Amino acid sequence: MLDFLFHWPPRMLFGVDSHKKIGEEMQGVSSKALIVCAKGPFRENGLYDDVKNSLERAGIQTYGMGDIDQNPRLSSVREGVAICKKETIDTVVAIGGGSAMDCTKLIAAAALYDCDPYEFVWGSRPQITKSLRTVLIPTIAATGTETNKSAVIVNDETKEKYYCDCEHAWLVIFDPAVTKSAPHRLVVWGAMDILSHTFEYYFNGFEGSEFQSRFSEAIALSVMHALDVLNDTPEDLTALGELQWCATMAWGGLTKIGRMEPEMTCHWLEESLSGYFDTHHGACLGVLTPRWMRMVCQDKPSIFARFARNVMGVVEEDDGKAAAEGVERYIAWLKTIHAPNTFFDIGQKEFSDAEIEHVVSTAWRIYDGHIGKIRHMTYEDCLQLIKSGREPI
Question: Is this prediction's pTM over 0.85?
Answer without folding.
Answer: yes
